[in-house]
Amino acid sequence: MKPILQVALDEVELARAVNIAREAVAGGADWLEAGTPLIKSEGMSAVRTLKNEFRDHVIVADMKTMDTGAIEVEMAIKSGAGVVSILGACDDSTVEESVRSARKYGARLMVDLINVPDPVARAVRLQELGADIIGVHVGIDQQMVGKDPLDILKGVRKAVTIQIAVAGGLDADSAAGAVALGADIVIVGGNIIRARDVTASAKRVRESIDSAGKHYIVREKKSIDEETREIFMQVSTPNISDAMHRAPAMRDVKPLYEGIKLVGKAVTVQNFPGDWSKPVEASDVAQKGEVIVIYNGSNYVAPWGELASRGCQQKGIAGVVIDGAIRDVDDIKRIKFPAFASASVPNANDPKGFGEINAEITCGGLRVRPGDWIIGDDNGVMVVPAERAYEVARRALEVKKSEDRVRTEIERGKTLAQVMDLYKWEKK
Ligand SMILES: O=C(CO)[C@H](O)[C@H](O)COP(=O)(O)O
């Protein structure tokens, strides 16, 4: 049996969802899911509209029901859903009521294991209760902190015989992995619906799952730091700011030249104006890929210049960020060493040995601790606390994906206000 490709329409605008669904169907989507955000925003009319537009496709209503199973399942089925999804975390009585309703009105019941403490035991129980499909699902917020549905799938597959659907940040590669591990249905949201070319992206997933048994190779997982760096290299500082609830960048700290992309963990320096020992000694402390971040305390005397930059470049240090002045701007530009500063002056003064390396500092108005992630580009410099780096990177990537989709719609002739339906979402 060919695996089923279910595309989750996690949109808030019905018209956009329908357009995306059309493109996804052209790429090979089998089932279309009215995602929870769409249902919350548009209600059952989302399910009704999808059914009317796509008569030959199964419409899945991702109700995420936690209580009153009978009513919610009934209303979804009567609106056109062929599959209704409820939460496995609910009470058994809610599952039983949902099963009764699904049987009565002729649809299948999917039960979603999102956030269930013991997914294997719960899956066994849900099968006993009459669920038709088990949903192995790692939610979007959980994905952002590194959880992976494929880690749960193996155990659940061994424990139940009913169909299994898998969801949670799947792309062409991991969707194939899910099929290779025994999934019958793969649910893909973001990686299809937010792609610049939805049809091409759905097609990639389609081909990948259809040949999963033959070609799938389990890839080694990268370290969190490696993955974090790779993602930060792909996103912009505006993406990161948006991902951090519009957090500010370093104030007045600007790139020395256009086109810099700086990513790395911070080695910090608290300096005193008119001294340059500690900033330059930090080049001996910093490792390959790290960023030296200096609070200099003055825009009128530079603790850093071309020679320090050359030494760092030789060692593979990613760059320097200075709240304060820099010098030798022309030479630093010529050797293309990534540098950000708030001013440039010719004078440096003397090395004296005051200050401290790897203390907590404030740079451009932001707190920076050793090991925090620093990301700089043409827009400015963002600081991401070490303990949230992976999560912020993943969220920034989601922001980028959403923007890619919005860009496509603008290129087709709409304004940003129209694409986002800004008027509807103004605060009332
Ligand atoms: O139900 C959901 C979130 O709760 C999503 O629809 C599901 O996770 C699929 O989307 P994605 O592929 O973006 O994770």
Automatic annotation (TrEMBL):
Its EC number is 4.1.2.43. It catalyses: D-ribulose 5-phosphate + formaldehyde = D-arabino-hex-3-ulose 6-phosphate. GO terms for biological process: 'de novo' pyrimidine nucleobase biosynthetic process; L-ascorbic acid catabolic process. Residues 4-205 form the Orotidine 5'-phosphate decarboxylase domain. Keywords: Carbohydrate metabolism, Lyase. It holds the Pfam family OMPdecase. GO terms for molecular function: 3-dehydro-L-gulonate-6-phosphate decarboxylase activity; hexulose-6-phosphate synthase activity; orotidine-5'-phosphate decarboxylase activity. Gene3D superfamilies: Aldolase class I (3.20.20.70), Ribonuclease E inhibitor RraA/RraA-like (3.50.30.40). Belongs to the HPS/KGPDC family. HPS subfamily. This is 3-hexulose-6-phosphate synthase. It comes from Methanocella paludicola (strain DSM 17711 / JCM 13418 / NBRC 101707 / SANAE).
